[in-house]
């Protein structure tokens, strides 16, 4: 994994943890309405996405080289919050309440597994040569699957800030 991607993953995760660590349990689990996730659910969704991404990359590495030539501008697709993206069932969060530390532990665990897995890839150039279909973004090179993790977190950090304003929480 290149240094820029590693740094973006770390910086974005640090920003996420900073946004949530001082929240009380009621604030963390507050749902503004029935169609909106709580901060806790947003974070659980991020854990599930990271876990699913690791599986997708592992699967994609076992496939033959991709014929996909075009690289999508995933940052434009993901960071545009005017376009709602419905989460696939597999990455929908639990409805039960969470504790902040419980989510921080899940976030740390999923990140450690991802970084460890990526460090075991003998030829990281394969990430730019192979692709897998992403449920919301279509065919993506595997290195773009890694990139979408921190972009997706950035998208949801903005959502978390909005929910915190509704609940009267500041960081």
From TrEMBL:
Q: Where is the DinB-like domain?
A: 9-160
Cross-referenced SUPFAM superfamilies? DinB/YfiT-like putative metalloenzymes (SSF109854)
Q: What is the top-level taxon of the source organism?
A: Bacteria
Q: Which Pfam families match?
A: DinB_2
* Protein name, UniProt field: DinB-like domain-containing protein
């Amino acid at each position: 994994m290149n240094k820029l991607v590693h740094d973006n993953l770390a910086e974005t995760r640090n920003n996420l943890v900073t946004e949530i660590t001082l929240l009380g349990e009621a604030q963390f689990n507050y749902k503004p309405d029935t169609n909106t996730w709580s901060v806790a659910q947003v974070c659980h969704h991020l854990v599930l996405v990271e876990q699913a991404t690791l599986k997708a990359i592992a699967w994609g590495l076992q496939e033959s080289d991709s014929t996909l030539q075009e690289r999508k501008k995933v940052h434009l697709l993901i960071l545009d919050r005017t376009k709602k993206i419905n989460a696939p069932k597999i990455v929908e969060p639990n409805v039960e309440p969470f504790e902040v530390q419980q989510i921080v532990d899940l976030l740390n665990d999923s990140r450690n597994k991802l970084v460890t897995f990526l460090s075991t890839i003998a030829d990281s150039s394969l990430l730019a040569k192979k692709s897998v279909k992403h449920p919301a973004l279509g065919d993506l090179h595997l290195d773009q699957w890694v990139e979408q993790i921190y972009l997706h977190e950035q998208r949801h950090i903005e959502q978390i800030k909005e929910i915190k304003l509704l609940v009267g929480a500041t960081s």
